[in-house]
Amino acid sequence: MCLAVPGRVTEIEDRDGTRMATVDFGGVVKEVCLEYLPDLQVGEYAIVHVGFALQKLDEESARQTLELFENLGMLQEEFGDPWELAAEASGPQWADNEEVPQEAQQ
Amino acid sequence: MKYLDEFQDPDLARRLLDDIHSVVTRPWALMEVCGGQTHTIIRHGIDQLLPDQVELIHGPGCPVCVTPLEVIDKALEIASRPGVIFCSFGDMLRVPGTGRDLFQVRGEGGDVRVVYSPLDALHIAQQNPDREVVFFGIGFETTAPPNAMTVYQARKLGIRNFSLLVSHVRVPPAIEAIMQSPNCRVQGFLAAGHVCSVMGIGEYPELADRYRVPIVVTGFEPLDILEGVRRTVLQLERGEHTVDNAYPRAVRPEGNPAAQAMLADVFEGTDRAWRGIGVIPDSGWRLSSRYRDFDAEHRFSVAGIDTREPAECRSGEVLQGLLKPNECAAFGTTCTPRNPLGATMVSSEGACAAYYLYRRLDITTAPLEASPVA
Asked: Is A21:A51 a contact under the CB 8 Å cutoff?
């Protein structure tokens, strides 16, 4: 949760007066708030934490980090299904829990 | 040297290691503050690659781990109430409260939802005006600005059915508490890079000076850790104690001023209890009086919940660097990720989880209890 993942801005729009972006994290796409980096432009990279861009990053650093995260399985940890992870950790008595809610599947 | 082959740039890793080996003349104990750094260190065996004189001590920088039991119990109480949608980051699901966790609350019928961003929780509140939506706002300086912005947005948009259960903590007071401990062995700090991306490095020179301890801002990739260790050891060998930024690609000295301004608007400083450690003065944030309407603790009257932590869990000592996870008698026996005594065993950034996950992989070559520790 505390780690931030680098991503590339692909689109920017204003939503309810808030600057929001579509950001690509090595194939996983998320909505990200740009209020803390208002100068960020389409095509640029930033480190993103829990849906907020926090600091600009150069492209090479971003790509290297993303590659490393993917190899380490950290992208799966960040963007994967947390209910499945929790069920696995809990053991078989919880593994057959009811269906995963939509929010967790996004 | 099997681990070295797994580095992104094995040649650079080798050069950094050679450099560290060549300058060390005596024993040094360094603390990596960030839980993400701990996992990198254990996963890549960095502690085993370093010279014997350089010991890495794991710090309290896992936000899930340091969230006090009573806050978890407040979350469980609120999440169990009818009409509540309780939203959390995924890594809080299995953190044990008294007798159960959020995962079990959901199994008992509670509407617990996992969100990627606190703004997702606000969106759920907009879509469900007849329900109370509560977001579990824990974390360090990296996570606090997103949560602050979400409360700011809730007020701006007039969303009344949203609130925050807040338990934010700050790194510098934790460093100070560690240095003031009579048992402290830490001689240098690898500061948490992403915390500094937000806060900058302005809070550290005074600490470095007062405690005569080098503080090197460090990233969490394997090469970042080696570079952080190299710079810290160099300072120690030279008798220096300055603040050094070894992670400039993500950390500017001033941090992120917009995020800091929002923190100052939405939150105010407060004493905070750290799980297993106790209260550290002025070590956290709570909602400022202007945003008190969005405080779930008051809205659901759970402020009175006061839970005593179980004595058998020694995670407090682990979080302060006084005990290595596998030195705990419960490690891997009565405490496992499936049946954890404390959060350090279930959090993705917890030191006990890192030891369990990666040392367990070594079982084929060495029994767990015989695993070497730096």
From this structure: no
> What's the pLDDT at A15?
87
Question: Hey, CA dihedral for B346, B348, B354, B357, is it positive or negative?
Answer: positive
Decide the pairing of beta strands B28-34 and B243-245: unpaired
- φ, ψ (nearest 5 deg) of residue B146: -60, -40
Q: Residue B298's closest CA among B165, B167, B168, B110?
A: B165
A33·B107 Cβ contact <8 A? no
Q: Which mean pLDDT values do the consecutive 10-residue runs of chain B (374 residues) have?
A: 73 94 97 92 92 95 91 96 96 89 95 96 98 97 97 96 97 95 94 96 98 96 95 98 96 97 98 90 96 96 82 87 90 89 87 83 38 32
Tokens of B35: 């839980």
What integer pLDDT is reported at residue B3 of this predicted model? 66
Instruction: Sort A42 into a burial class: Cβ within 10 Å, 0-12 / 13-18 / 19+.
Output: exposed
Q: State the Cα–Cα distance between residues B276 and B333, nearest whole angstrom.
A: 20
Ramachandran sector of residue B83 (left: φ over 0; alpha: ψ -120 to 50; beta: rest): left
Predicted pLDDT at B56: 96
Tokens describing residue B278: 């106790």
What is the ipTM, given to two decimal places?
0.89
Q: Considering only CA atoms, which of B151, B136, B134 is closest in space to residue B85?
A: B134
- Whether A1 sits inside 8 A of B349 (CB atoms) is yes
8 A C-beta contact, residue B113 and residue B85: yes
Quote the pLDDT of residue A2.
Answer: 62
Distance from CA of B25 to the nearest CA of A (A): 33
Tokens of B350: 């917890």
CB proximity B317 to A under 8 Å = no
- pLDDT of B370 reads 33
Which residues in B111-130 are b (16+ Cβ under 10 Å) and which e? bbbbbbbbbbbbbbbeeeee
Residue carrying structure tokens 């801002």: B217
Give CA angle at B195 (B9, B261), nearest 5°: 140
CA distances (Å), origin B183, targets A61, B276, B323: 39, 16, 11
Best of A28, A52, A60 to mutate (most B CBs within 10 Å, chain B): A52
Distance (Å, rounded) from C-alpha B359 to C-alpha B235?
A: 31
